[in-house]
Design brief:
This protein is an alpha/beta fold. The chain contains 9 helices and 10 strands. Helix 1 links the parallel strand 1 and strand 2. The radius of gyration is 18 Å and the shape is globular.
């Protein structure tokens, strides 16, 4: 189906049984015709098996349960490798869900209009559900839709601050070649996409204000940890990206400014999280 490329919604899950049915149902509600949903269970010890059981008869659902718990990022990578039948991938964590049943169709139409072979990813927005309140993820995107290249996305990332893992449909083959989900850090998703941009700096990226669904924030989110060590390791990921940018031949002063801004934004965000938790 050359006019309808295969898309896989990857649903990595670990002990998220209370949320998982909503995630799967919202994935099944997508109206894109050439769609597979991969649920990859990281050896959960809750009722995940029971939640998934009624769905496995569907031709659209594939279910894998890991023999051992491999961890959040390794489970992302395992899903990426298992979804080798798809041209395009999107990640829907087991505790999140879609609210826009047309999102993948909209994203694929934009990708095809821009030329599939030239596009790295399409990135929309999501609603953030936090402490019982819903609000939109902050974004510096002024346009309803913007096409830019990988270099521009990378160097403007901490100015634009437009990112949504649950709303990013990306080229699987290029992601595999780039080494997606190899850094086991809190922001493994952001790191992977920024690395992808550096490795494919002339390819197109489509940014959009189209909302895919809901990112549910709760105390079990890895990003909510107050331990300092994981955050220091996360910040070191930006140093790795800075080194890669220099290796790719980008201006050293420009790269240094990017690294300084990345640390400033990260520390400001981490401090804000601490303040919210202390209130």
């Amino acid at each position: 189906m050359s006019d309808c490329p295969a898309v896989c919604i990857m649903i990595p899950a670990y002990n998220q049984a209370p949320y998982l049915q909503k995630a799967i149902d919202s994935a099944l509600a997508q109206d894109y015709p050439n769609l597979i949903i991969l649920v990859i269970d990281d050896h959960s010890d809750d009722a995940t098996d029971e939640v998934v059981a009624p769905y496995v008869r569907s031709k659209k659902i594939k279910y894998i349960k890991n023999d051992t718990n491999v961890g959040r990022v390794a489970n992302y990578r395992k899903a990426l490798n298992a979804a080798n039948y798809a041209d395009w991938l999107i990640n829907l964590d087991g505790d999140d869900y879609y609210t826009n049943p047309q999102f993948i169709s909209i994203a694929m139409a934009a990708i095809q209009a821009a030329g599939q072979k030239e596009v790295l990813f399409y990135q929309g927005m999501h609603t953030c559900f936090h402490d019982g309140k819903a609000d939109f993820l902050p974004t510096g995107l002024q346009e309803d839709e913007l096409v830019l290249d990988g270099e521009d996305y990378f160097f403007s990332y901490f100015t634009r601050l437009h990112f949504s893992h649950v709303s990013t449909l990306y080229n699987r083959n290029l992601a595999v070649q780039s080494g997606f989900y190899t850094e086991d850090i809190l922001s493994a998703d952001i790191f992977s996409f920024l690395q992808l941009c550096l490795n494919n700096s002339t390819k197109k990226i489509i940014l959009s204000k189209t909302i895919s669904g809901v990112w549910v924030q709760h105390k079990n989110n890895s990003s909510q940890t107050m331990q300092v060590k994981p955050h220091l390791k996360n910040m070191d990921g930006y140093r790795i990206l800075h080194s890669l940018a220099i290796k790719k031949g980008f201006n050293q002063l420009r790269c240094a400014k990017w690294l300084i801004r990345s640390r400033y934004i990260y520390l400001r965000t981490f401090t804000g999280t601490i303040i919210r938790k202390l209130k």
